[in-house]
Each structure stands twice: as C-alpha cells, then as structure tokens.
Amino acid sequence: MPNGPLDTLQAICLALPQATERLSHGEPSWFAGSGRQFATFANHHHDDRLAFWYAAPPGAQQALTDEDPKRYFVPPYVGARGWLGVYLDVPVDWEEIEALVEDAYRMVATKRLIAALDQRGT
User: Fold this and answer.
1) pTM, entire model
2) By residue range, what is the domain housing residue 62?
3) What's the pLDDT tens digit per position in 94-122?
4) Which residue in 6, 44, 103, 113 has the most C-beta neighbors within 10 A?
5) What is the number of structural domains in the chain?
6) Which residues contact 105 (CB under 8 A, 6 or more apart)?
7) CATH (domain of 66)
C-alpha cells in the first residue's frame, strides 16, 4: 500500500504498459516506454505546493483551471504546451488522478503501447 502522494502517483504511472521512471529536472518523472514524458511530480518545485504536472488533452487545461482553480493550475515551462498541474496538498480523488494520468499517457504513447493499454482493459 502506498504511503503518500508520491508513492500513490508512482504506482498509478508505473502500472501503465512499459512506463518508466527517471529524474527530470530533479523530480520523479514518468515516460511512455523509453519515449516521451507524460507526468512529473512537483515537490514544492516552484512554490510551496505539492503537485504533479501532466500532458493534458486539448482543451482540458482551460476547462479544468476554470472549473476548479484551487485544484488545477497551469504549470510553468510546460503549461504553454498544454500541460496541466494538479495540486496534491488538497483532498485528492485518486480515481480521478488515475484517469488523468491515463489520458496523459495516451497523449504521448506509441500506438503499440496504447493498444497494450486497451487490451489490458478487456
């Protein structure tokens, strides 16, 4: 059983087909296979908040930051590319986080990895 937000997020990310973890800019980050990054942990990286950033589908950044700015934010650097930040120092719905992470994975994964993810659900 995970012990905290990082452990829980790590378990969610690494459960995806061929997901890997390595440090990126000093923070634990997750990649689809050996390819593109889909999420990163933000442990008070640019402010005093605990969060994670992820590759959000088109339109999600604006919709979620408008809907709930106490939970979602546009992260520095990658926000201009559509990434979305999610605070983890507020009450967290981990099922929702799992869905967001899967969306992020689908944004960057190869067709083969997405097919493996889809097969897992059948």
Assistant:
1) 0.90
2) 5-120
3) 999 999 999 999 999 999 999 999 998 65
4) 113
5) 1
6) 13, 16, 19, 32, 38, 39, 113, 117
7) 3.90.1150.30
